[in-house]
Amino acid sequence: MNILADEGIDRPIVLALRAAGHTVGYVAETHAGIRDEEVLALARERKALLITADKDFGDLVFRQAATAEGVLLLRLAGLAISQKTQLCVAAIQQHGAGLPGAFSVLTDRRLRIRHMSLEAPKDASNLFGLLHRADVAAKTINEMDDGIAKAVEARNQRSKDGGY
């Protein structure tokens, strides 16, 4: 897999991904200090999955409608480097095919992959891209609301049936 690791990613993760056979560019080695927008542009240019620990990339992708090949946000603060490395490599090895075109979040408990159309059609304006993303986000929220409503309904039914 083609990967770009943001400069906030621990070097042992980069080395382990390279050892696992992935092509990994590392911003800290080649472009230290560049702005987030430039990191995202570099990932697009290289057609690479961006691995970052910086939540600002969520804002760039969703609120500012910046396009991305895919983003894997590591939320692994407080874990030992060896645990972070193991979790990251395992997630990419097991779920790598599902990461391009998605904004994914890896925690110590799970990997959440949110497939979204991150690019507007080539001939569309930025406004169209924003509207498209808002529509996708609204549908995702509605799906989540439906899931929550079903879970609450099931809990209430179990309560009525004496299941609690």
Structure, described:
By secondary structure, the protein is of the alpha/beta class. Helices cover 50% and strands 16% of the residues. The protein contains 6 helices and 6 strands, in the order E-H-E-H-H-E-H-E-H-E-E-H. Strands 2-1-3-4-5-6 form a 6-stranded mixed beta sheet, sandwiched between helices. Helix 4 (56-63) links the parallel strand 3 and strand 4 (71-74). It starts with a strand and ends with a helix. 25% of the residues are buried.
Question: What brief labels describe this structure?
Answer:
164 residues; alpha/beta; 6-stranded mixed β-sheet; 6 strands
Q: Tell the overall outline.
A: globular
> Structural class per helix/strand content?
alpha/beta
Strand ordering within the main sheet: 2-1-3-4-5-6
- What string gives the helices and strands in order? EHEHHEHEHEEH
The DSSP helix count reads 6
Low-confidence stretches: 118-125
What level of helicity do the residues show?
A: 40-55%
Short description:
By secondary structure, this protein is an alpha/beta fold. The chain contains six helices and six strands. The chain is globular, with a radius of gyration of 18 Å.
